[in-house]
Design a protein that fits this description.
The complex is a heteropentamer, with two copies of chain A (about 350 residues), one copy of chain B (about 280 residues) and two copies of chain C (about 230 residues). Chain A folds into two domains: about 5-220, 3-Layer(aba) Sandwich (Rossmann fold); about 225-339, RNA polymerase II/Efflux pump adaptor protein, barrel-sandwich hybrid domain (OB fold (Dihydrolipoamide Acetyltransferase, E2P), Beta Barrel), CATH 2.40.50. Chain A is built from eight helices and 20 strands. Chain A has helices at about 45-50, 80, 100-110, 115-125, 140-155, 170-190, 200-205, 315-320; strands at about 5-15, 15-30, 30-35, 60-65, 65, 85, 160-165, 190-195, 210-215, 215-220, 225-230, 235-240, 245, 260-265, 270, 280-295, 295-300, 305-310, 325-330, 335-339. In chain A, strand 9 (about 210-215) and strand 10 form a beta hairpin. In chain B, strands 1, 2, 3, 4, 5, 8, 9, 10, 11 and 14 form a ten-stranded mixed beta sheet that branches. Chain B has a two-stranded antiparallel sheet with strand order 6-7. In chain B, strands 12-13 form a two-stranded antiparallel ribbon. By secondary structure, chain B is an alpha/beta fold. The radius of gyration of chain B is 19 Å and the shape is globular. The longest helix of chain B has 13 residues, at about 20-30. Chain C has one domain (about 20-230): MetI-like (MetI-like fold, Orthogonal Bundle), CATH 1.10.3720. Chain C is globular and about 60 Å long. Classes of the chains: A alpha+beta (about 350), B alpha/beta (about 280), C mainly alpha (about 230). Chains in contact: A-D, A-E, B-C, B-D, C-D, C-E. The interface between A and D is medium-sized, with 26 and 21 residues. Strand 16 of chain A pairs antiparallel with strand 16 (about 280-295) of chain E. The complex binds adenosine-5'-triphosphate (ATP) (2 copies) and magnesium ion (2 copies). One adenosine-5'-triphosphate sits at the interface of chains A and E. One adenosine-5'-triphosphate sits at the interface of chains E and A.
């Protein structure tokens, strides 16, 4: 049994509004998962459920082979919670010292004083906050708070670690440190890790697998290249982010008014050089970013708005693209989707 | 603390506030070894305590109600212990011109006729009972306020009598003697008070009240105190033997001597009733 | 024991008889309690705000003193005020003693420390960032205070309600400074005390029940005014 | 007016004479007030926590009822308890009437609603994320409650201090259920009332000053125990 | 007079610890400034001072030609505050509706009801939160909150806008929107903008000028390439981020124990191809990222740790570097600094 979580028909609603609806999802033990999605997609909501901090409106969660009972008043979920620690998006610190904030979870788990001191020393060092041990935890700066929250979670050596935007507000140096930390505890302790992020670039190397939530549902789009899109005066043309004119490919009708368009970064063709005449599905611009992401290369093309596409290493080597090179992107009807 | 010789007594505030108990009880303890736990409250509440069997003995001044109390079997016997007297007080200016009047009833009538401000205790205390009786005797037109109280399923009427003019010249304050005196002094009004409290407020304080005795000495103004041990047949737990011993000591020559000898600010307050 | 049931039926009878005397007593009680709660709030809320938010050097000391004042007994307040407003006192000429205003003065002294202390507690807990946000959005000190009050509204309501509960159930001051004068300064509690002193417990409790009903009604009203939202 | 200065010197004299009678009175007062505050806290704090944090359907209604209870007059409580512990009452055989325990029972009834209501107000304002954080760190319900208490400590202290102030300055219940028996149930306030009844205002105020001093001392002590940290 | 702010000897201390110390700094009107620096460097502290929300321990601020009086109790700083709005790092929402949160500042400025409604509608649309107008503001998701906070500030058309990490927690799509918004209000309304960020890439195109704070002081380092650094067993070698061996250049002595090293991304030479023997000041690795930043190209080299350097367009064109190309970086003694 290698399933850490198995979710079925998991729904969470607030005031009648469904903000999360997952039909089925299995998360395996000892892996690192990245969770992406726009604001309000339900990422934090999902984490709250996975950390047993809220009760879903309906649906079931199987954790480590045990069905999590639906919370009733007085029901004790500590058994589950002790194995899963969530690091909040905006972590909150108890109004005591940094040391005591970390000590809290350890005390609860009955770790003896010398053990506690040793663990606290170690985790503070990991996040480079050793000199803050006796500082007031609720007066730290934004990034310090974020790091302390991670240290507080790490001290408990959880089986599952849920990090809600672990590197937001954290400085570049420590972002690398945190990513290193996460992969290390995953490797050394077999800890299952889920994290959310809006920073694809930073997160790219970390996750073994990624999911995208959109309006509360798991979607297969990669969540790149989503643009607000309004109709231009001409027929069959729309304005991406009110700036870039885009001829819609044949067979692709724009919904009325403003809407959102998704240009699939894997379903396109790329040619070097500009194409002089505007044609359906065609965008041109200059290359602005090139980035290695695993076995593929991310290419950001400045067409007025920034459009991202992916190339395989071979394609890239064939094209030998440089920053500033003019290119033409051609999206077919299957590469364009309305959201 | 399993002292056999401890009893509880409910009494009116006047016995405690006048300071009598402060000399009476030590003398009692010296003679008989009896310790008395004193609970001072309004006459009505004190009698109520006796009815409920919360104390062993009561020491109050409301003769009719005391007799009823014994008749109903709550107490064994009323021992007439002592009396003091009431006086009619008023401002020095004496707008109703009652100074020196020997008889209380005409004096009150004169107050009413001149519509001089009069403060009534209005609390159904011994003093208030006396005042109502005096007002009735004046022959003035009286008003009666009746309120109905449901008690044990039966309705019972409680009535108050006062001369016409309530709220104009006649104020009913519903408080103890001391507070009533303070109010009367403050408003420079007439009132009926027991002599003990008056003396305390006139001579026993840094700031004495201005009111003066304008009428005194009428036998109608006598204020008798009685002591009643609670009937053990009603309340088997009461310490009847000690309570009886206490009552008997009070009416004994020794007890009576202490009472007669008590001086407040050089003035005698209480007159023994059981002296032979 | 059975005077509870008796009291209950008396209370109902009292209310339904709409006894004019009872009505007067209720009116006096409500007027005095509402006014003194209002005045104490007007004094105590800004004061509490100032103590909690002003950068006072001796904040802790002030709070300790304030808390001690919560133990001010009604007798002391009664005598104190009496000293000032009695015929021989400083303000004797105003003829305040034994009026409803005298009760109000005493009760304001009684509950202002309570309101203040509870406001300090309610406001201290509000995250400083609310004030900061209001200020950066351009709020004056007063407007910032309003924001903090809105965030602390539940605590503030609790303070005001406690104060109201304290005064409407208060006896000592009403008795000493009001004088329990029938038709003028007799409040529900002094009427109750009087009934008790007379030994008519049933009526005392019946009045108490009426008082509780009124208090409940006031609270329901307050709750409606306070509106919905997070507690 | 000048009885203020007179009272002041009397108070000092009283304290320095170390009058054994005064000491007894102070001891009784402190014992009764501390015990009833303690008991009311033991009842009211968990209850307040439960009301604030439990997912009660009728939370708002419960809070309204609770707030109405703040207006429970001492006379009513006194009579109510009297009904139970008087000789003819349900618990008459326990011989509780006119003992310190009777006062404590009455006072606990008086202040438990106060403590509870103020605790509800204090705790409601604590950000839910504190509880959430504690829970994700593995805390049981009890341990979570401890965290919330620590964050709400200032409000909780204010509640307990208010309750203490209320009982140590309370007269009605002490008088009715204690009986003001010298050496046994005479508290500072009933002694004060007696002195007042006797017309010795000076002594009454002097006793009041002693009471305030004791209250101040208790608060300083409390402050020291409470320790440093954000208010 | 084009100076928006002139700061002299500005110091802020908390509990005796100096967290900010700026000798002299002039910020000009109508420009966009980026403020960078590691966690705890004092960025938020500086913003609090610039927004007149805290009083400096010492030093002076001249705003728009007026010296800001040192705050005394009762002093009214509204006059200044009305021109400067700060958007917090973790913005706090009043516990009312989204609409009322924005309305607050407008009401205070005496804007009439129809005007208010119109402005609110407009700014909500700008941050794409129109459908949330009546939602409870304190229940929004992390990124929604961030965007609402910006909208609340924009509604007031301030002269100066201080954004503390405006795009942290915001999704990719809206990050672009926010950057667009900031440059638009800067252009259209001449609003002076300061923002902090840890995301150099995102911020690159936005700022006209950037500053770096480090331990409370303005520093000239670009804050790139700062690594924790511990001594390796061999002489003259250290371990960058405990991973990459780095031979220290001649004349460059390592302080004892752990410390932090700065490799100046502008003081180096780059050569194509690997250098087989380890030599002082030399790192080699493969190119992992190429990004256009104004007139220069950012190059991230994966040497085990990620090292960033900058190339001018010409140099880049000369080298024609591709992702994955092996390169050698050579830092001289002046390119290496201990922090
Ligand atoms: N307690 C709540 N009551 C009402 N609505 C809520 C509550 N919590 C969240 N929501 C709403 O549910 C939706 C999902 O919120 P959630 O916090 O899960 O988003 P998210 O994916 O974490 O977004 P972000 O990237 O901005 O953090 C949002 O639209 C939010 O406004
Ligand atoms: N109120 C305070 N009391 C004590 N120390 C404080 C206070 N506020 C900030 N500090 C400390 O001052 C330093 C600077 O904090 P500041 O918030 O300005 O950092 P920052 O540059 O904004 O960092 P981040 O990138 O993490 O947001 C930090 O070390 C912080 O712990
Ligand atoms: Mg979120
Ligand atoms: Mg910051």
């Amino acid at each position: 049994m290698r399933h850490q979580y198995e979710l079925s028909q998991l729904v969470q609603s607030y005031g009648g509004k469904e903000v999360l609806h997952i039909d089925h999802l299995v998360l395996e033990r000892g892996r690192i998962y990245g969770l992406f999605g726009p604001n309000g997609a339900g990422k934090t909501t999902l984490f709250n459920l996975l950390a047993f901090l809220e009760t879903p409106s309906s649906g079931s969660i199987i954790f480590d082979g045990c069905t999590v009972p639906r919370s009733k008043p007085g029901l004790r979920l500590e058994k589950f919670r002790r194995q899963v620690v969530m690091v909040d998006q905006h972590p909150i610190m108890f109004s005591t010292s940094v040391f005591k904030n970390i000590e809290f979870g350890l005390k609860i788990r009955g770790v003896g004083r010398p053990g506690r001191t040793e663990i606290i020393r170690r985790v503070l060092e990991l996040v480079d906050l050793s000199s803050y041990a006796s500082a007031r935890a609720d007066q730290l700066s934004g990034g310090e708070t974020q790091r302390l929250a991670l240290a507080r979670a790490l001290a408990l050596s959880p089986r599952v670690l849920l990090c809600d935007e672990p590197t937001a507000n954290v400085d570049v140096e420590n972002q690398a440190v945190i990513r290193g930390l996460l992969s290390r505890i995953n490797r050394d302790q077999g800890c299952t890790i889920l994290f959310t992020s809006h920073d694809r670039l930073q997160a790219a190397g970390l996750a073994d697998e990624t999911f995208v939530l959109e309006k509360g549902r798991l979607v297969s789009t990669s969540h790149e290249n989503i643009f607000s899109c309004s109709a231009a005066p001409e027929q069959g043309v729309c304005l991406l982010q009110e700036k870039t004119r885009f001829f819609l490919p044949r067979g692709c009708l724009q919904p009325l008014g403003r809407s959102r368009i998704h240009l699939n970064p894997e379903k396109y063709t790329l040619e070097r050089g500009p194409e002089p005449t505007p044609a359906p599905g065609v965008l041109h611009g200059r290359i602005s970013l090139l980035l290695e992401e695993g076995e593929r290369i991310r290419v950001a093309v400045n067409t007025g708005t920034m459009v991202t596409v992916f190339l395989s290493r071979e394609e890239y080597q064939r094209h030998r693209l440089l920053i500033g090179d003019p290119v033409t992107l051609r999206f077919g009807g299957d590469g364009v989707e309305w959201l | 603390l399993a002292n056999e010789k401890v009893i509880k007594m409910s009494t009116t505030t006047s016995t405690q506030a006048s300071g009598l108990l402060d000399v009476l009880l030590p003398a009692l303890e010296k003679d008989t070894g009896i310790q008395v736990k004193v609970i001072a409250k309004g006459t009505g509440a004190a009698i109520r305590d006796g009815r409920d069997g919360n104390v062993d003995v009561i020491f109050v001044h409301a003769k009719n109600r005391e007799q009823a109390f014994v008749a109903e079997g709550y107490g064994t016997k009323r021992y007439a212990v002592m009396h003091n007297d009431f006086v009619i007080l008023g401002p020095q200016a004496d707008g109703a011109r009652i100074k020196g009047m020997k008889e209380a009833v005409p004096a009150l009538k004169q107050i009413a006729d001149s519509h001089s401000l009069f403060i009534s205790r209005g609390d159904d205390s011994g003093t208030h009972t006396k005042e109502q009786a005096l007002w009735k005797a004046t022959g003035l037109q009286m008003e009666t306020v009746t309120s109905t109280v449901t008690k044990k399923g039966k309705s019972r009427e409680i009535s108050f009598t006062h001369p016409a003019g309530l709220g104009q010249w006649y104020l009913s304050v519903g408080q103890g003697m001391g507070k009533t005196l303070t109010i009367a002094d403050e408003k420079q009004a007439y009132t009926l008070a027991d002599r003990g409290t008056y003396l305390k407020y006139k001579y026993g304080r840094e700031i004495p009240i201005d009111l003066e005795i304008l009428s005194e000495g009428d036998p109608k103004l006598a204020n008798p105190y009685g002591v009643i041990p609670i009937n053990p047949k009603r309340h088997p737990h009461v310490n009847y033997q000690v309570a009886k011993e206490f009552a008997q000591w009070l009416v004994s020559a020794r007890g009576q001597a202490v009472i007669g000898g008590y001086r407040l600010l050089g003035k005698q307050l209480f007159y023994p009733d059981a002296v032979q | 024991m059975n005077f509870f049931t008796a009291s209950f039926s008396s209370a109902i009878q009292l209310v339904f008889s709409l006894d004019p005397e009872l009505l007067t007593v209720v009116k006096v009680s409500l007027r005095v309690s509402c006014l003194s709660t209002l005045l104490a709030s007007v004094l105590g809320i800004p004061l509490g705000f100032f103590i909690a938010h002003g950068h006072l050097p001796a904040k802790r000391l002030i709070i300790t003193l304030l808390n001690s004042l919560l133990a001010l007994p009604t007798v002391v307040i009664g005598l104190f005020v009496y000293g000032f407003i009695s015929r021989r006192g400083l303000f004797g000429s105003l003829d305040l003693l034994y009026t409803q205003n005298a009760i109000i003065i005493g009760q304001v002294i009684l509950i202002t420390p309570l309101v203040t202390a509870l406001i300090v507690a309610a406001i201290s807990r509000i995250d400083e960032r609310y004030a900061k946000t209001a200020r950066t959005l351009g709020a004056t000190s007063l407007q910032t205070a309003v924001v903090i009050f809105r965030e602390a509204r539940f605590g503030i309501c609790a303070a005001v309600i406690s104060a109201f509960g304290r005064v409407i159930s208060e006896i000592g001051i009403s008795m000493m400074l009001g004088g329990n004068i029938k038709g003028f300064t007799r409040t529900m509690t002094t009427a109750m005390a009087l009934e008790y002193d007379k030994g008519s417990f049933t009526l005392a409790i019946a009045l108490g029940l009426v008082l509780m009903t009124i208090s409940l009604a006031m609270n329901v009203l307050f709750n409606l005014v306070q509106g919905r939202g997070r507690l």
